[in-house]
Amino acid sequence: MKIIMLGAPGAGKGTQAKKIAEKYQIPHISTGDIFRANIKNGTELGKKAKTYMDQGLLVPDELVCDLVVDRVKQEDCKNGYILDGFPRTIPQAESLDEALGQMGESLDYAINVDVPDEHIVNRMSGRRACVGCGATYHIVYAPTKKEGVCDVCGAELILRDDDKPETVQKRLSVYHEQTQPLIDYYKGKGILKDVDGTKDMDVVFQAITDILGA
Ligand code: ADP
Ligand code: ADP
Ligand code: ZN
Question: For 62-87, what is each residue's pLDDT tens digit?
Fold first, then answer.
């Protein structure tokens, strides 16, 4: 099963992708996580990506496409995968389609987690990320057992720099301009599925599993 997650920043793509990956036993591939790991490790890619991420801009397509195409060719992806945060532009979608086409494959589902802008700032300002393992929480909707400490690994939680309200506004406008057109792109391919992302996490997950099947 090959799935991509669409939706505004903070819509809940990562939250749902992790649950899907666990239930269907397929790798969860998050380009945002890949970039953050590169930044943490001080790689060249990380250095380049950071200048864009800090401004709420997309990292250029040429730094993203090959990375993802190489990743989905790996052995653990042979039974499928879930892409979270990629594609984010029409050229990225086209390059993925082309690469899959060459392998005689295609995507099965594009799941669009629909959340209106007015909910997003609230979602993002409450999001907390673990500096150790990358787990994601929300101070109101998905709190940790002990405040400020990751349930999984015990490391400290932070508010991502790009989740501060100034940057969130920029990311939202970038989303509308560059990523939202993918909804029509995948509708045209007949694989788009919408879910209402304003509902509770478990309700959203149920809606997704109804689409994917048991
Ligand atoms: P969110 O979880 O809020 O949707 P991500 O963690 O997916 O954000 O991405 C964080 C940042 O990483 C983005 O704002 C962008 O700068 C960069 N990024 C991630 N994926 C891509 C991509 N496919 N194309 C370009 N930039 C990306
Ligand atoms: P994305 O990957 O789309 O940027 P996340 O999955 O990181 O989004 O979710 C953004 C924030 O909103 C996180 O703090 C997460 O815990 C919280 N969240 C995710 N889904 C829901 C939901 N259905 N209701 C309330 N909060 C949610
Ligand atoms: Zn952790």
Answer: 999 999 999 999 999 999 999 999 99
For residue 41, is it within any domain?
yes
Q: Which domain holds residue 79?
A: 2-116+167-212
The residue count for the chain: 214
* Tally of structural domains, the chain: 1
Q: Is 175 in the pocket of ligand 1 (CB under 6 A)?
A: no
- 99 in any annotated domain: yes
| Residue 56 burial (CB count, 10 A) | 20
In a domain, 20, yes or no: yes
Provide the token pair at 182.
Answer: 């993918």
Residue 12 CB–ligand 1 contact under 6 Å: no
**9-41 pLDDT, tens per residue?**
999 999 999 999 999 999 999 999 999 999 999
With left for phi above 0 and alpha for psi between -120 and 50, is residue 7 left, alpha or beta? left
What token pair was written down for 26? 């397929």
Q: What is the CATH number of the domain that holds 77?
A: 3.40.50.300
Closest ligand 1 atom to 33 CA:
6
